[in-house]
């Protein structure tokens, strides 16, 4: 009997394309491989870089450290990771359905805390009539003045996707937003061969789930991958301190130094530099009111356990 040590099975390195609980679909080179996650390794999400063994069926051997992880919160304020290793978040809103009051700002709080680039996409621009156009232009200018990329898109008429596509060249982009704002239509335009890709995913998983029931990664030839995510009604912010919320309002930082109190929360404190800036028109009062609503809402969320 040989005393030579047993060699460990070789492993393959790939990207999680879709995750349904313990069921994973991993892309290794040009091959889609179905496997199951392992509880001891933790939850695996779309965009994770993972190792698979050469066993048949393949075994999940490990998860590479994440560069970032984009979450949303459940009703108890606990983070639920949606996707990992992103380059940017594309926040999609539309005239119909009208975005909830603080939706964009909630997403921006998340992006700023995670160090992710945010792109604001006003989709269904063909539905914006002459009467409402000034309102949407004001919204766009508000965020452009803060140096966020803002684009108008339509999948049915001008302006098309001409402003959006150049922003999605490098790295994975996740599309997020409310149900019905046209994320699926944008995905279809960005991925002309989407039917073939979804057919391949369904065949590999032996399941016919609709693509928007779970976060799904799609590669694009010559451009950055696109990640489709299920729609929401309101984006839930996880339990965080007020200072993290303030970090998402990037225009506050220059004026917060002028607050009388070092721990000023910019709510009702006297001699608040942020409030003074808003009074002088240097901070948009709509943004300040949104910040205060978000902080107030988080105060009513119990501290999550575990």
Task: Write structural notes for this entry.
By secondary structure, the chain is α/β, with parallel strands linked by helices. The chain has 3 domains: 11-63, OB fold (Dihydrolipoamide Acetyltransferase, E2P), CATH 2.40.50.140; 69-228, P-loop containing nucleotide triphosphate hydrolases (Rossmann fold), CATH 3.40.50; 242-299, Orthogonal Bundle (Ribonucleotide Reductase Protein R1, domain 1), CATH 1.10.40. It has helices at 103-114, 133-144, 183-190, 194-205, 242-247, 253-256, 273-279, 285-299; strands at 11-20, 23-28, 31-36, 49-53, 60-63, 69-73, 79-84, 88-93, 117-122, 150-152, 173-177, 216-220, 223-228. A 6-stranded mixed sheet has the order 10-9-8-11-13-12, sandwiched between helices. Strands 3-2-1-4-5 form a 5-stranded antiparallel sheet, with helices on one face. The longest helix has 15 residues, at 285-299. It is globular and about 65 Å long. Mean pLDDT is 88; it is low at 1-7 and 206-211.
Spans with pLDDT under 50 lasting ≥5 residues?
A: 1-7, 206-211
SSE string:
EEEEEEEEHEHEEHHEEHHHH
DSSP strand count? 13
Helix and strand content put the structural class at alpha/beta
Architecture of the largest domain, according to CATH? Answer: 3-Layer(aba) Sandwich
Identify the CATH homologous superfamily of the largest domain. P-loop containing nucleotide triphosphate hydrolases
Total domain units: 3
Gyration radius from CA atoms, angstroms:
22 Å
Q: What's the pLDDT, averaged over the residues?
A: 88
Helical proportion, percent range: 10-25%
